[in-house]
Amino acid sequence: MRDLRVSYGEFAALQGVSLDVESGEIVAIVGANGAGKSTLLKAIAGLVPARAGTIAFDGRRCDGCSPRTLVERGIAMTLEGRQLFPEMTIEDNLLAGAEIRRGRGRAKANLAAIYDRLSVLRERRHQLAGTLSGGEQQMVAIGRSLMSEPALLLLDEPSLGLAPRIVGRIFEWVRDINRAGTTVVIVEQNIAASLALASRAYVLAEGRVVMAGIAADIARDEGVRVAYLGGAAP
User: Fold this and answer.
1) Cα separation of 74 and 76, whole Å?
2) How many of the other CB atoms lie within 10 Å of CB of 222?
3) What is the spatial distance between Cα 205 and Cα 185, in angstroms, rounded to a whole number?
4) What tens digit of pLDDT does each residue of 61-120 get?
5) At what angle do helices 134-146 and 107-117 cross, to 10 degrees?
6) Pairing mode, if any, of strands 26-31 and 208-214?
7) What's the pTM value of the predicted model, to 2 decimals?
């Protein structure tokens, strides 16, 4: 991403953001509410248009592409709030993620892999998604993204509204997804947890990158700890 600018009417949500994500990384995007974090992910996924700047994925320009084209090219996003089809079953929600050429041929194998990891979903696969708990819905939402076999997975607030025990399971799964070869960019309200998960991080403030580097170093930065982590570094 180079000098990306995104506006909502007169409001400038991103003001010249540049960043890099290497294959195989987990990169955290952190910052206060309204900093532009979710807008950044949506711009990568083609859900909001860029006013200026460029985005490239795997060596090819992708700003201006439709969301469907980007999914076909290997980018999937799990939206904040899950955004499931509540009147469809768990299984039908998962299979919806394979309704593109990229994931269609291995839909059965990918579905089986998700069920092997999350046996509770296999047991309840015919249950309507709208009747699930928040944690179960989040698992379905991430699973639906994985059904397209993404090379890059964008996660927007995966722990929002979830109990700590469930958050731990979600983050463990994200780590395993990454170890299996999927690059991850995560926006997460639990900043300490996202910095512990990530290899590198970018800090946004008012639509600009104000810090970037090794996630562990950013977690130890006194300014970051005071602003986002509830205390100064020891």
Assistant:
1) 7
2) 12
3) 18
4) 999 999 999 999 999 999 887 789 899 999 999 999 988 766 567 888 999 999 998 888
5) 150
6) unpaired
7) 0.91
